[in-house]
Write a structure and sequence with these properties.
The protein has a domain of 203 residues: Rossmann fold, CATH 3.40.50.1100. It is built from 20 helices and 14 strands. The mean pLDDT is 95. 49% of the residues are buried. The protein has 435 residues and is an alpha/beta fold. The strands form three sheets. It has a six-stranded mixed beta sheet, sandwiched between helices. It has a five-stranded parallel beta sheet with strand order 9-6-7-8-14. Helix 3 packs across helix 4 and helix 5 runs parallel beside helix 6. Bound molecules: pyridoxal-5'-phosphate. Pyridoxal-5'-phosphate binds next to helix 12.
Length: 435
Amino acid sequence: MIFHSTKNKNLTASLEEAIFHSLPPDNGLYMPENIPQIDPEFLNNIETRSFKEIAIEVTHTLLAEDLSRDEVTAIIDTAYNFDAPVVQISPSNYVLELFHGPSMAFKDFGARFMAALMSHFLLRSNKQINILVATSGDTGGAVAQGFYKVPGISVTILYPSGKVSDIQEKQLTTLGQNVTAIEVDGTFDDCQNLVKEAFLDSELNAKFNLASANSINIARLIPQSFYYFAAYSQLKGLNKPLVFSVPSGNFGNLSAGLLAYRMGLPVERFLAATNVNNAVPRYLTNGSFEPVASIATISNAMDVGNPSNFVRMTRFFNDDWNLVKEKISGYFFNDEQTQKTIREIFGNTNYVLCPHTAIAYKALEEFRQQHHSEFTGVFLSTAHPAKFIDLVEETLGKSVDVPERLKSLLSLEKVAVKMDTSFLSFKKLLMNHLR
Ligand SMILES: *Cc1c(COP(=O)(O)O)cnc(C)c1O
């Protein structure tokens, strides 16, 4: 597959270049030049396919020029020992559970595919790749787990001290081996700025192969389209149009849904569900995109003022606002509404939602009140509620179950390098530490 920059169609890259360089040199984002169509015969029988079979078919459709079917199968086999079940919540609403991977957030789907794909390319060379990633919580855990012990790759994760949950911190700091956690005495923005500065530093780049594992990397976007197909396969028998509600921050997840749609997946509508960081819902209402500084909320993985995948999202519609708003509706909710939704759903169904997922449910409910046509609603659950245990227990006024996988983490010893926010400290550390 050929990719080009969103800023310049003549600036192209191969799959290998796009995943290892992450960003085109003009600071645009890589987009597929052409989007191949999924085989209609495959869609007709998709209900008979497993998650892995769907992932293999979608990847093979997109990357047939880059990988043989056997290579695709090996990558998918390495990446996924978990899938994406839908669970019925009410007569016409289903939750797509994306938290069955090792870090119990949907970012496992992207991180594990990316790790398997990179290691496929690295097997043919002797290169050493150094992944740098800043995290506000979930990305770090998924990337750490995804790249753990992958030969030829080291991972350095920067996280803001005291600003991630206990479980999230343990996910980053207890693996060791090729995973190094840096506890920065600052905010998420400080972490992100340090990483950005490292990518621009000529001395570091001359010495090391640096790569990003944030959702700007196309290798994280492609695999997130798999579970839209998987939801369709599980709900196709209902014979109703599908509406997907996506809890969104950087809009990688929703963009992946659009990729699936452009490949031929029948989708009636997407809902862009955010917290008060609502640059995209505002754009959908008035046509102008005005990014602002982020505001802290209880759905903190979506506290993004300037969503990095916005350009990809609109590019799927040739940047035509009228076309975008025909397919995507925006909704946003504050913390109080989020907590009220967590309580209501638990009261009605006994199902516990994480705060991000609650926002997606609420958007679906609002959309349903405005549209009386028949459709099947699917809201994406991006994290297991136990990852936000303190908030969820406080909201419900009762204790909730923590899966063994998360519980056992809490007794492990945290190992992190403490650092201030100066780039000199970071550079010195990388110089001593990277290979
Ligand atoms: C990362 C994350 C999101 C936001 O996903 P985007 O692809 O950035 O829009 C939502 N919920 C959770 C739990 C997350 O970790």
